[in-house]
Design goal:
Structural class of chain B: mainly alpha
Number of strands of chain A: 0
Radius of gyration of chain B: 22 Å
Strand content of chain A: under 5%
Strand content of chain B: under 5%
Number of domains of chain A: 1
Helix content of chain A: over 70%
Largest sheet of chain A: none
Order of helices and strands of chain A: HHHHHH
Distance between the termini of chain A: 45 Å
Largest sheet of chain B: none
Radius of gyration of chain A: 21 Å
Chains: A mainly alpha (about 200), B mainly alpha (about 425), C alpha/beta (about 325)
Bound molecules: sodium ion
Order of helices and strands of chain B: HHHHHHHHHHHHHHHHHHHHHH
Shape of chain B: globular
Oligomer: heterotrimer
Chain lengths: ~200, ~425, ~325
């Protein structure tokens, strides 16, 4: 199972990098488009639409990456005041369970969206007339992967809970306090500064 | 009745420390189950696709990516060193450079957290070197960081604009003057504190005209980016959303010019951007779903009815809204607070006769206040984390005077709405 | 006659449109309950008050979210090109012709909706014409050459390609600032909806050659429909006929009122008084217009819809209007 999670971690990392690359390419396309439009009144057409798809797809794939790095925002005002470790672990499991519940529902109906577009051969209303099953299919795949990953983490969390391995559970699905989040932001900046100081 | 139940459901779900996205989504499912005659849960697939593939929302990942690139390009550090030469002769020394740097960085970045984190890291080493009053110094960074969303560009203004059909360029125009005044107010706060207690101001820093001139070019990159991003909108080259993409290419160009562009750097930027974006979008998915349910069950209309039943005057409505946000702002995460309340408060305010652009700026100021008011304020956490010692209450103490400055700013735009509206009238 | 009791859930058109205000809301809230002596009641919410994307309305109707739904069908043309077939850019220049075109095509749309969407077509309606709003004074069709024009569907893109203009796409909310800053030179939207959205404040002129009528349909989920008593069905079909007539009468009155508002004349109750110039379409431009429709517009659409589909169009809409689409 640990092996499964390592694979899932790799997939979600690649998913995030590819998703980010899509956004980067989309932003470059937009710049080309507005330059052409401003200078010679030509438009590529569809740069805006492609960035929309990039956002939908990259965020669907990014949900997993955010889950693994425990970045989904939780309001832990109450949580941090709870002394009992067992109760905290329980809240972590409930939190993941509800996340799975809601996004399970989203994913279920998302399948209906893709299926309908496939059946009616839907295309976008833009100049590029993109067949919608392609972006929607990639988007749905990201959601599905997120749901599967949540199931995996929930099972591992439950097993850890039963075994009484609370530290293991926190490392998997514990609430990351806002402080830890700030530390990461800082590490990123510090990394940038280090690079700066290199000759 | 519905309103009360909704609020209880939502607060319970969020208070139980489940993910904000799931909490809002489930609140939607529960409310739909009890109060709606339509099976609205079925729309969640179409709704998620149509909102997350909406071009206007791409401004969110674009500004996040823009910040990620600037974070890794060293632009901020050089800018800070230059501003030290120009601003630190004032009583309060470097604390004015902190505020000035935040304002300048905020004028290219759309996010408050990125602004506070970047300038915070650059400035933090100076506390001990020059013996500043530590809490106040930290306060300038936490509060200065919030300028990132008042001075355009601003992710929060884009989200407000999208959710309420308000023109984003108008909001941007409206943000400049309050942003400038608030920067001055923050500086005045430091000035007053350091005239009252001169020992807080730290040692005088060596500055001279030679250095001032020599470091002047380091102010150029942010100014150039500012001109590109904002100029593109107002000179008819790009829309507000497209301008965010322009910012990315500009920031990449500067990074390349500095010789810091590499595959590794790009990979880190991509991964970081998607992770943060996903976190925001997850909340948006829950919030948009809850929003549809709230509208379907007529909660907004009920609230407006309630208010008209009490026959609140426009001023009382305004006061109620301000108090609501000051209360929510202490314990709620700022973005989710904004998304979950805009559909309710905006119609109320517009009905009471307030201009949606003006209200947008008021809302941004209230969110800024929330960001530095304890116990939950994201900028407090960021600055405390950067400092890496002492207690969080130091940062809270140091931010308190700036909360007062923000409240004064809010009072000012209520008394003189023209501070917000004058630019819109002249150029809008 | 006494009808059995029914209660319907309806999602309606955008609330600021005249059809919603004058026809749709009164129809469901007053006409139907009164005519059925209280047997039939409906709970209608305009779609903008639910923050729903109008492109998804047909999908939601299929999912059974509501019983009846009204929608701008050209927004669904991505799901089936037939949905824009009687509202192609520039196809008809007055509302009577537009109605005749859609009438001729009624059976085709109903068939497609029943087959792919489990939805039944009940009535067609229209809106004020889609016209050009320009930052400077428009000089006619030829003057659009090289101009940047904001449009929102492919048939308008075909039309603009025909006149040599650049089609730009952007969100409705971004058009006013874009016109004001000069990101685009012109934009296309309804003569009244542009007025109420403040387009008149950033433009000098309107070129009134219609690029469409944002044809809307009222439709019902087939499962909901089949559950109804035959008497109720007959009663409703009767009512929808009268409702359709009323909608088309509204199109005419609001179109002339929109012109009043846009040129600063009374009566103007539905919009804001503005000071734009309506640049009359010159008679000699009609020749160019005909060429554009028969060339770029019909050819572009036929390519999206296919040969069979174009053939069927020629036998229906084409026959009613005296036009022929190429069969690729
Ligand atoms: Na900013
Ligand atoms: Na707070």
């Amino acid at each position: 199972m640990k092996y499964l999670q390592t694979i899932a971690g790799e997939i979600s990392r690649v998913g995030a990098i590819v998703g980010g690359a899509m956004l980067l390419v989309a932003s470059i396309l937009i710049c080309i488009d507005i330059t052409l439009r401003y200078t010679v009144s030509i438009t590529l057409g569809g740069a805006d639409e492609l960035s929309g798809y990039a956002l939908a797809i990259s965020s669907a794939w990014g949900f997993s990456s955010a889950l693994l790095s425990r970045s989904h925002i939780r309001i832990d005002t109450v949580y941090v005041r709870i002394k009992s470790i067992g109760a905290r672990a329980m809240l972590d499991l409930i939190s993941l369970g509800t996340l799975l519940g809601f996004f399970g529902m989203v994913t279920w109906y998302a399948w209906g969206v893709v299926w309908q577009s496939w059946v009616s051969g839907s295309r976008s209303l833009s100049a590029i007339e993109a067949p919608l099953v392609i972006p929607q299919g990639l988007w749905f795949a990201g959601l599905l992967f997120f749901v599967l990953l949540s199931v995996l983490l929930l099972v591992r969390g439950l097993l850890a809970f039963i075994a009484g391995d609370y530290n293991g559970l926190f490392a998997l699905i514990g609430s990351k306090s806002a402080l830890a989040e700030a530390e990461e932001e800082i590490a990123a900046v510090a990394h940038g500064l280090e690079q700066e100081k290199k000759p | 009745m519905t309103a009360g139940v909704s609020l209880v459901v939502l607060l319970f779900l969020l208070g139980s420390s489940i993910a904000v996205a799931a909490g809002m989504g489930l609140a939607g499912v529960i409310l739909n189950q009890f109060y709606s005659t339509m099976p609205m849960s079925r729309i969640v697939g179409e709704l998620t696709w149509s909102t997350t593939s909406n071009f206007i929302l791409t401004a969110i990942p674009f500004y996040i990516m823009f910040g990620e690139i600037l974070l890794r390009s060293g632009t901020a550090e050089r800018m800070y060193a230059a501003l030290v030469q120009w601003l630190s002769w004032l009583p309060g020394g470097l604390m004015h450079s902190n505020i000035g740097s935040c304002a300048l960085f905020g004028s290219v970045s759309g996010s408050s957290v990125a602004t506070a984190a970047t300038i915070g890291v650059v400035a933090m080493g100076e506390i001990d070197k020059h013996k500043y009053n530590e809490p106040l110094f930290l306060g300038t960074l936490a509060a200065g960081g919030t300028l990132g969303i008042l001075i355009p560009p601003s992710i929060n203004m884009i989200i407000y604009g999208v959710m309420t059909d308000t023109s984003v360029p108008k909001l941007y125009l409206a943000g400049f003057l309050p942003g400038f005044i608030l920067t001055v107010l923050f500086s005045l706060t430091v000035l007053v504190a350091c005239i009252w207690k001169p020992q807080w101001g730290g040692n005088r820093i060596e500055t001279n005209w030679e250095m001032r001139i020599k470091l002047l070019p380091d102010l150029l990159p942010p100014l150039v980016l500012l001109l590109i991003v904002i100029g593109a909108i107002f000179f008819g080259v790009a829309t507000a959303t497209e301008a965010a993409a322009v910012g990315i290419v500009g920031a990449l160009a500067i990074t390349a010019w500095r010789g810091r562009l590499s595959w590794r750097m790009l990979r880190d930027v991509c991964e970081g951007t998607v992770r943060t974006t996903a976190m925001v979008v997850a909340i948006l998915v829950g919030a948009f779903f809850l929003n549809v349910i709230i509208q379907t069950i007529g909660l907004t209309q009920q609230l407006s009815k309630l208010i008209s039943a009490y026959q609140l005057s426009p001023l009382q409505v305004l006061m109620a809204v301000i108090v609501l946000y000051l209360v929510l702002g202490t314990f709620m995460e700022e973005l989710s607070m904004m998304i979950s309340t805009i559909p309710i408060t905006t119609p109320l305010m517009v009905q009471a006769g307030y201009d949606p652009v003006w209200y947008g700026i008021l809302l941004v100021l209230l969110i800024q206040t929330a960001m530095i008011s304890p116990p939950f304020g994201i900028n407090l956490f960021v600055i405390h984390g950067i400092r890496g010692r002492g207690t969080l209450s130091d940062v809270e103490k140091g931010s308190a005077p700036f909360v007062i400055a923000l409240l004064a700013m809010i009072a000012m735009i209520c008394v003189w709405p023209d501070i917000v509206m004058v630019a819109v009238r002249w150029f809008g | 006659q006494d009808l059995p009791k029914s209660q319907f859930k309806v999602i309606g058109l955008n609330s600021p449109t005249p059809v919603s205000i004058h026809d749709e809301l009164p129809f469901w809230r007053k006409t139907i309950p009164e005519a059925s002596k209280g047997a039939i009641t409906a709970d209608i919410t305009p779609l903008d008050q639910m923050s729903i994307d109008d492109k998804t309305m047909l999908r939601l109707l299929k999912l059974g979210v509501m019983d009846f739904g009204a929608m701008d069908i050209s927004k669904m043309a991505g799901d089936d090109p037939r949905f824009e077939a009687c509202d192609l850019a520039g196809l008809t220049l007055d509302p009577d012709k537009a109605r005749a075109a859609c009438n001729a095509y009624r059976a085709v749309i109903d068939r497609q909706m029943q087959k792919n969407w489990n939805v039944k077509l009940l009535a067609f309606g229209g809106n004020t014409p889609q016209v050009f709003w320009c930052k400077d004074v428009a000089t006619g069709l030829a003057g659009f050459k090289g101009k940047k024009v904001r449009v929102f569907n492919n048939t308008m893109r075909d039309f603009l390609a025909g006149v040599g203009a650049t089609a730009v796409s952007m969100a409705f909310a971004e058009v006013v600032p874009a016109l004001s800053a000069g990101v685009v030179d012109c934009g296309v939207t309804g003569s009244l909806s542009g007025n109420t959205a403040g387009w008149a404040e950033v433009t000098k002129s309107i070129y009134p050659m219609s690029l469409g009528w944002s044809i809307n349909v009222l439709a019902v989920n087939l499962d909901s429909w089949k559950r109804l008593d035959p008497k109720t069905q007959a009663f409703l079909l009767e009512q929808f006929k009268a409702y359709e007539d009323k909608m088309w009468a509204t199109v005419k009155t609001t179109t002339s009122e929109a012109d009043n508002c846009n040129t600063g004349q009374q009566p103007c109750t539905m919009g804001k008084l503005a000071n734009t110039t309506i640049v009359a379409v010159k008679p000699e431009e009609m020749e160019t217009h005909k060429k554009l429709v028969e060339g770029a517009v019909l050819a572009g659409w036929a390519k999206r819809c296919g040969a069979e589909c174009a053939k069927e169009w020629n036998e229906t809409v084409g026959k009613a209007l005296g036009l022929t689409a190429p069969t690729p």
